[in-house]
Amino acid sequence: MSAVAADLNTTTGFVVADNRGRVVGRVESPMYGLANVPDALAVRRRRLSRHLRLVPANTIATIDAARGTVALSVARDAIRRFH
Length: 83
Description:
Layout: H1 2-7, E1 15-17, E2 23-32, E3 38-44, E4 52-56, E5 60-64, E6 69-72, E7 80-82
Parallel strand pairs: 1-6
Antiparallel strand pairs: 1-2, 2-3, 3-4, 4-7, 5-6
């Protein structure tokens, strides 16, 4: 997880897709837990939406910086929503 966690700081604006290739949204910002290392991403579906999805770092399969995408290892429905 440490290899992915180091990359979470540079993923703002990346498109997030689930394991079936469906778009979840764009990364709003990395989120920090108790440590100084980001352990999740805040993802927004629409630009003006108030709802965010919490994407834990352990659900991230790959991060492609060249394409600006984050691929998840879980379905979109498995990701929690919050305000």
